[in-house]
């Protein structure tokens, strides 16, 4: 059989031939049609020119006002994440309990689900990281994370503050949707600060991780929440570097083993004396709970490093904390403070800016006798880092000239703030923040402001700075630097 192969050219020619056989419209119809077509194209061109000119004028005005070229930032995949006010498709993604909170949490657990919890016990950023580790561990063990409140261990320096619910800070439905797992807070399953005391068995990881303390690291959240916890000391293999007193880390997958029956059974029945601490209220000892797996303190958990959030590969950052966005309310409050800091009206756009975070306060404990003025990085050293960020931003986003700089810090010495002002850097006015929103809010608002900048200069060894650096680099595709300190010239480079 002969096969004729038609090329696309053949078929086009064929179509042309076919078109030439079609009847043409009459001349008068063709003229009217031509006039309409010309009129349409002339109008369309004029309208397009009008919009293009308006856009260029607005850009130029913004450019003059803020000293920046508001060039569009390249598309990033995260842009497709749903906005925080979106309706999330599957409500059950972020449920995971039988119903509203009950006096006993056990009445609220779903029989075919497993859960994981842990306690807060340090500064706010450390606890953000610890909760990120908790959620990541829950993901890899197929458990539902149950998150406690933040406790004000350091905010207390300024006086009393109430425990702060995780969901008051982070958008839980959005997080649940992004990580595709239900997320619960303790207040979802047990009545908040319930007077009904309930016992539970928990693993004590902390006594294994460090060398000076055999007491589980519990903080005060469980006791405030009607939870009476007894502890079983975890196997020695939960510490990654046994005998190393400087590295307290556990590997995620070593901890994950405790989620499964084999490792648990092996350890509890190994014939050695198991160290167990009775619960403080009911004075009972329970083996670690299997459905509500509990580990006392999870800040020191990592995949391969130690303070792993400092590195771009950190799985707890990439799979969890990167998706912990501020609640809509906090976003609005953060923008309010930014506008007020820059003196902008609600209708005016917030210009790209750089935030500095300089930690002093209790960091003086690490100065080891070096005078503070030599130990902490001086203002010109910080200014050099700011210039580096400005330069890199102008290369990364050609034409972008970021002049707005905000200093955030725990420093209280007004003479130091005068030096900051002399650089032309702004300071956020927190004179009424605590009274208006509560004692947690100055530090939370500063973290929000840091996260929204195109540039960030942080303090070495500050967990607060580490998370802000990650947010600026990942959320804003921005540029960050870290200032070293501890002795004169520590940041020389
Ligand atoms: N408002 C404000 N407060 C700060 C800032 N940096 C530190 N602080 C205060 O100092 C405290 C620092 O103590 P921690 O709670 O230990 O901070 P952290 O979150 O653990 O972070 P690092 O200690 O920096 O690793 C915070 O709780 C705040 O009260 C800041 O930039 N702005
Ligand atoms: Mg701290």
Sequence of strands across the biggest β-sheet = 12-11-10-13-14
Shape: globular
User: Roughly how many Å apart are the termini?
Assistant: 79 Å
Oligomer: single chain
What does this structure look like?
- The chain is α/β, with parallel strands linked by helices.
- It is built from 18 helices and 14 strands.
- The chain is globular, with a radius of gyration of 30 Å.
- A 5-stranded parallel sheet has the order 12-11-10-13-14, sandwiched between helices. A 4-stranded parallel sheet has the order 3-2-1-8.
- The chain folds into 2 domains: 82-323, no CATH class; 328-483, Rossmann fold, CATH 3.40.50.
- Strand 13 (455-459), helix 18 (463-475) and strand 14 form a beta-alpha-beta unit.
- The longest helix is centred in the N-terminal third of the chain and has 40 residues, at 27-66.
- It has helices at 8-20, 27-66, 124-140, 166-169, 172-179, 186-189, 206-209, 221-224, 252-257, 261-268, 315-319, 328-342, 372-375, 379-396, 414-422, 433-437, 441-451, 463-475; strands spanning 115-118, 144-147, 184-185, 198-204, 227-233, 250-251, 276-277, 292-295, 301-302, 353-358, 404-409, 426-427, 455-459, 479-483.
- It binds guanosine-5'-triphosphate and magnesium ion.
Write the layout of secondary structure elements.
Layout (H helix, E strand, L loop, with lengths): L7 H13 L6 H40 L48 E4 L5 H17 L3 E4 L18 H4 L2 H8 L4 E2 H4 L8 E7 L1 H4 L11 H4 L2 E7 L16 E2 H6 L3 H8 L7 E2 L14 E4 L5 E2 L12 H5 L8 H15 L10 E6 L13 H4 L3 H18 L7 E6 L4 H9 L3 E2 L5 H5 L3 H11 L3 E5 L3 H13 L3 E5 L10
Parallel strand pairs: 1-2, 1-8, 2-3, 4-5, 6-9, 10-11, 10-13, 11-12, 13-14
Antiparallel strand pairs: 5-7
Helix pairs in contact: 12-17
This protein binds guanosine-5'-triphosphate and magnesium ion (MG).
């Amino acid at each position: 059989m002969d096969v004729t192969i038609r090329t696309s050219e053949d078929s086009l020619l064929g179509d042309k031939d076919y078109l030439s056989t079609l009847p043409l419209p009459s001349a008068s119809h063709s003229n009217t049609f031509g006039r309409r077509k010309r009129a349409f194209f002339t109008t369309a061109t004029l309208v397009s020119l009008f919009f293009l000119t308006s856009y260029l004028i607005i850009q130029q005005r913004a450019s003059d006002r803020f000293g920046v070229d508001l060039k569009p930032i390249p598309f990033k995949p995260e842009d497709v994440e749903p906005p925080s006010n979106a309706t999330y498709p599957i409500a059950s993604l972020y449920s995971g309990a039988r119903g509203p909170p009950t006096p006993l949490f056990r009445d609220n657990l779903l029989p075919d689900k497993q859960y994981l919890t842990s306690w807060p016990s340090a500064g706010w950023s450390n606890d953000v990281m610890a909760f990120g580790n908790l959620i990541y561990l829950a993901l890899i063990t197929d458990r539902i994370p149950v998150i406690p409140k933040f406790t004000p261990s350091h905010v207390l320096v300024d006086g009393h503050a109430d425990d702060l619910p995780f969901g008051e800070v982070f958008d839980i439905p959005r997080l649940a949707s992004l990580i595709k797992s239900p997320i619960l807070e303790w207040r979802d399953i047990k009545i908040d600060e319930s007077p009904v005391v309930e016992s539970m068995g928990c693993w004590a990881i902390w006594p294994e991780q460090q060398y000076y303390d055999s007491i589980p690291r519990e903080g005060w959240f469980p006791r405030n929440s009607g939870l009476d916890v007894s502890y079983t000391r975890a196997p020695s293999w939960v510490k990654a570097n046994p005998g190393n007193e400087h590295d307290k880390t556990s590997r995620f997958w070593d901890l994950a083993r405790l989620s499964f029956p084999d490792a648990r059974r092996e350890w509890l029945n190994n014939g050695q004396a198991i160290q167990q601490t009775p619960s403080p209220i009911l004075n009972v000892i329970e083996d670690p709970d299997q459905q509500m797996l509990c580990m006392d303190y999870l800040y020191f958990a990592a995949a391969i490093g130690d303070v792993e959030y400092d590195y771009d590969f950190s799985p707890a950052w990439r799979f969890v904390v990167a998706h912990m966005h501020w609640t809509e309310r906090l976003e609005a409050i953060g923008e309010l403070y930014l506008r007020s800091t820059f003196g902008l009206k609600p209708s005016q756009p917030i210009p790209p800016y750089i935030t500095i975070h300089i930690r002093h306060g209790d960091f003086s404990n690490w100065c080891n006798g070096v005078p503070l003025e030599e130990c902490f990085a001086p203002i010109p050293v910080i200014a050099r880092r700011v210039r580096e960020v400005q330069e890199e931003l102008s290369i990364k986003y050609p034409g972008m000239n970021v002049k707005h700089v905000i200093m955030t810090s725990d420093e209280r010495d007004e003479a130091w703030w005068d030096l900051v002002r002399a650089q032309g850097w702004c300071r956020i006015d927190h004179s009424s923040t605590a009274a208006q929103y509560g004692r947690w809010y100055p530090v939370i608002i500063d973290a929000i402001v840091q996260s929204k900048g195109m540039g960030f200069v942080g303090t070495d060894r500050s967990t607060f700075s580490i998370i802000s650096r990650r947010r600026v680099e990942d959320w804003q595709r921005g540029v960050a630097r870290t200032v070293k300190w501890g002795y004169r010239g520590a940041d020389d480079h």
